[in-house]
Amino acid sequence: MRRGAVTLVVHRPRHHARASGYQCLADALVADQSAVEARHGFPRRGTWRIAQPFVRRSHLAWYGPEAFLVEIWSAAAAWRGGIVHFLYGENSYRYAAAVPAWRRRLVATLHLPPAVFGDYVGTTHHLERLDAIVLVASNQLPILDRLRSRPAVHIVPHGVDIEFFVPPPALATRPTCLFVGQWLRDFVTLQEVMRQVHRAMPQARFQLVLPSKLAAAWQGRPGVEVFAELSDPALRLCYQEAALLVMPLQECTANNAILEAMACGLPIVASEVGGICDYVNRDCARLVPAGKPGAMAEAVLDLIQDPAARTAMGQAARTRAETLAWPRVAKEILSVYETLR
């Protein structure tokens, strides 16, 4: 590998739509030939057995044999001065710094909020050996307080595919509230919000896009439609046909559903937690205190009954999403690489 060349170690979560998630950064960087995606050349037979002891000692909840093999191969291939960027640092970076190298640089993007970081990353010594850490929200900074020595830190926002997620030709007229996802969602608050909104406005509808394992528990409720395993176009259509996105959250850094809804011109009602204020403002979102279903239901009912406000907020949401387009985010990441060359 030539000096300064960039290899991307990419984890592609199965629950993300093809046009969703941080792996889209890899697609943008590879498309303009700024980087290549990592692949390992180890034979399958026997190597997983070798990897298992390292996986068990990793203290990383989401780290597996395939991640170990890709990590070691990429670190070794870049030994003469390449840059290796682990796009999901919590999943895929653990041992690379221990691989001998000359002028290699290691970068990892972290996605978890501080409140749950320790639940999934049981050690931080390996993070101290990185050359740079990329955070997707400012609320992650306390994670670095655990490090005895701190690498260079860059806050670069998560992006969204604004070419795929686009607004509909006309504003939604049905009072449909959309909820998407599972990770760090506040389902207790969601249930109470739905109850209060339905009591005040029986014609209001909630559409829930959930993983299959959760879908059955929410089906059959009055005024509720449940979807699971949607295709990318079907997910986009949900955004486009909704009146607003309702997102009660326990915590967050970046949030794919919020970014995709914004790109589709959808007003947001969400819990004011974590890094959400890095991504939305009062022009495009109504933020309410976490765990306050009454305040969230009130915000939902206000917006359902105010098409002019929804139109203005939807336009502001799209404008904000355009500043987070993946090509723009990729340029910021390329600037991080330049600091390491």
Overall description:
By secondary structure, this protein is an alpha/beta fold. It has two domains: 6-159 and 325-338, Glycogen Phosphorylase B (Rossmann fold); 176-322, Rossmann fold (3-Layer(aba) Sandwich), CATH 3.40.50. It is 36% helix and 15% strand. The chain contains twelve helices and twelve strands. The chain has helices spanning 23-31, 47-57, 65-77, 89-92, 114-120, 187-200, 212-218, 232-241, 256-263, 293-304, 307-322, 326-338; strands at residues 6-9, 36-37, 83-86, 105-110, 132-135, 152-155, 176-180, 205-209, 224-227, 244-247, 268-271, 285-288. The strands form two sheets. It has a six-stranded parallel β-sheet, with helices on both faces. Strands 9-8-7-10-11-12 form a six-stranded parallel β-sheet, sandwiched between helices. The mean pLDDT is 95.
